[in-house]
Write a structure and sequence with these properties.
Distance between the termini: 21 Å
Number of strands: 25
Largest sheet: 4 strands, antiparallel
Strand content: over 45%
Strand order of the largest sheet: 3-4-5-6
Mean pLDDT: 96
Order of helices and strands: EEEEEEEEEEEEEEEEEEEEEEEEE
Structural class: mainly beta
């Protein structure tokens, strides 16, 4: 569970806190490499990647990204590489997951967001300001295709069903898209709430989820590779816009908190955000 400066580790069965990974300034995402007993955090403030051991949760290395503000991060298991998506740097740093060696930097023409991968060497990333999905070949470290999403805009949450090769994308234009990963064709679209920030997929139940900052969660069932059905719309809580899905218990975890009144706009801060109320952070647990 990522915070601004550290990562809290929760046992998904007992729901108890079991550890903490400190000194992760400007935390974005976490990537897990079970086969290497390693985890990786994207630290946006100092443009670093923390490498920690899964069994001890202790830091074992710190890597330097080649672009500004690492935000999202994945472990690509086919090539055993870590991809750091550097949002304001508008590039992707690729590391050897075992050694930490930089394998390359991929320039992208846009602000990177969440990424998905097919476990066979292809990575798909949303470029938020360009309203596109780029396809990256993890073996050559090249962008091999660009899929436009217009008239949909500001893609954020991105996830994939590798079996059917379908990509699910939550857009802040309030749409949840299903794409063919090979052609980029938009197969279906569902309306969603405001400020999407995550999409997840449960392969056992064939369910896709889109969580939104207005306190709504859309659940879609993948009936087949070409048919998708809305299952449920759930009212969660304001700010519960990110999530994790447990593929074993099928629980959904969504962090949020209480929010104070929005401050008045100033010249220095023309678009102020609602402040978080101290000591109200919590994780919502949705049972299947």
């Amino acid at each position: 569970m990522t915070h601004e400066t550290h990562v809290v580790v929760i046992d998904a069965d007992s729901l108890k806190i079991v550890g903490d990974i400190p000194n992760c300034l400007g935390m974005g995402g976490v990537a897990i490499a079970h086969d290497l007993n390693r985890g990786f955090t994207a630290n946006g403030t100092d443009d670093t990647i923390t490498v920690f051991a899964l069994d001890t949760l202790k830091e074992i290395d710190r890597l330097k990204a080649t672009g500004r503000r690492p935000n999202q991060i994945i472990y690509e298991p086919f090539t055993k590489q870590v991809f750091s998506f550097n949002s304001t740097g508008r590039n992707v740093t690729v590391f050897d997951a075992a050694t930490g060696e930089i394998k390359g930097t991929i320039a992208v023409d846009g602000r990177t967001e969440f990424a998905a991968f097919d476990k066979k060497g292809m990575v798909y990333d949303s470029l938020q300001d360009k309203a596109t999905i780029i396809a990256i070949d993890a073996r050559t470290l090249k962008v091999v295709a660009t899929y436009p999403l217009a008239p949909n805009a500001q893609p954020a949450g991105t996830v994939m069903d590798p079996e059917t090769r379908r990509i699910f994308v939550g857009c802040r234009s309030k749409s949840f898209l299903v794409l063919d990963a090979d052609s980029g064709k938009i197969l279906q679209s569902f309306p969603i709430g405001e400020h999407n920030d995550a999409a997840k997929f449960d392969p056992g139940l064939k369910l896709a989820f889109a969580s939104n900052g207005d306190g709504t969660l859309l659940i879609v069932h993948e009936d087949s590779a070409d048919k998708f059905t809305e299952v449920q719309r759930i009212k969660t809580e304001q700010g519960a816009r990110t999530m994790a899905v447990d593929p074993v218990t099928h629980r959904v975890f969504m962090p949020t908190c209480d929010w104070g009144p929005t401050p008045h706009a100033t010249k220095q801060n023309p678009n102020p955000r609602q402040p978080m109320v101290p000591d109200t952070f919590r994780v919502l647990v949705l049972e299947p």
